[in-house]
Structures are given as C-alpha cells and as structure tokens.
Amino acid sequence: MVLPKYVLKFIYFLAFILLSSQSFSETITFKGLALSDFWIKKVIANNNVTAGYIKIENKNGKNERLVSVESDFSKRTELHEMHIKNDIMIMKHLEEGVLIKSKSQLDLRPGSFHIMFINLTKSLKKTKFQKVKFNFKNAGSIVINMPIMDNDKKTNDKKKHHHH
C-alpha cells in the first residue's frame, strides 16, 4: 500500500515534532566536550529569575574552563555554586567560571553548580526553548537551544528513561 504524499509529510512532521521535544536528552559534541541533559527551569509564578542546568564532559587531554554563560532573555546570566553550611543554603557567584578537569564531567544541576538567569527581560511561559551561549576558555563559544521544563516533568522523564 502506497500512502499519499500529504500523509507521508504529516507523519514526517509529527515525528520531527516528537523527536525535537525530547531535546533535553540530546548530546552535542563540541571540540572535545560532550554537552547533554541541558534545560531551563520553568519560571514559577511572577518570579524574575530562573535556573539552567547542563552536563559537560571534557574528553580532552587538558583542563577546560566554562568562563561564562550569556542569554538574551535576562539582564544578567551567572554561574553559581550552591551548598549547605551549618544547615544554611549558600549560593556563590563564580566570577572566574568553573573548571572542568581533563577526562572528567561537570554537572550543573539543582542543589549544586547551576546557571542563574537574573532579571528576566521577557516571559518564558510562552516559549519552549531559549538560546543560551556557553563561553569556554579553550574551546570557544557555542549556542545551545535549551528547552524550558518544570522540575517535576524532568524528574518523571528521567524515571521513565531508566526503565527502557
């Protein structure tokens, strides 16, 4: 049975939409770095800040440094480290960036290293993706189209993924 062209086009379009909606699980390789599991936390209520997360694996023979991150949807974009000291959550702006040692992985994730998007300049509620520029000391810069997701969906998707 041969399907009409419009049916095939619709099937290809649907497959493209379904596959692109799972981009958080995509891995981008860039000059010896593997960038994966990237996403931006959905903005809660009328907050003017949100966070972003990514895994960066340095497959190179020398250390790398994530120097800075840039976005066009916030007035400031900063790298932060969060930790608990004496039962108090402390968040520190990493002005020098973050070192990624040779043959190691850096996880920017909730409760640890992360990206802060401060003083949002546009609403992220109607968009599914935002472009974010990552600036590395040796590798240069790369722009990633990061999906906006809520934390609950992200956790559920990860649970589902592990059962394949």
Shape: globular
Low-confidence stretches: 13-24, 155-164
Q: Architecture, CATH level 2?
A: Sandwich
Please report the distance between the alpha carbons of the first and last residues: 32 Å
Q: What's the average pLDDT?
A: 84
Query: Which CATH top level class fits?
Result: Mainly Beta
Determine the structural class based on helices, strands and strand pairing: alpha+beta
Over all CA atoms, what is the radius of gyration? 18 Å
| Sheet with the most strands, sense and barrel status | 11 strands, mixed
SSE pattern = HEEEEEEEEEEEH
Number of domains: 1
Report the strand count. Answer: 11
Percent of residues in helices? 10-25%
CATH superfamily (homologous) name: PCu(A)C copper chaperone
CATH topology: Immunoglobulin-like
Beta-strand content = over 45%
Number of helices: 2
Concise synopsis of the structure shown:
The chain is 16% helix and 51% strand. It has helices at residues 5-20, 151-161, and strands at 27-30, 33-41, 49-58, 64-71, 74-85, 88-93, 98-100, 104-108, 113-120, 129-136, 140-149. With 164 residues, it is α+β, with helices and mostly antiparallel strands.
Can you describe what's shown?
This protein is of the alpha+beta class and 164 residues long. It has a single domain (25-161), classed as Immunoglobulin-like (Sandwich). It is 16% helix and 51% strand. It has 2 helices and 11 strands, in the order αβββββββββββα. The chain has helices spanning 5-20, 151-161; strands at 27-30, 33-41, 49-58, 64-71, 74-85, 88-93, 98-100, 104-108, 113-120, 129-136, 140-149. Strands 1, 2, 3, 4, 5, 6, 7, 8, 9, 10 and 11 form an 11-stranded mixed beta sheet that branches. A hairpin with a 2-residue loop joins strand 1 (27-30) and strand 2. The longest helix is centred in the first third of the chain and has 16 residues, at 5-20. The chain is globular and about 65 Å long. The protein starts with a helix and ends with a helix.
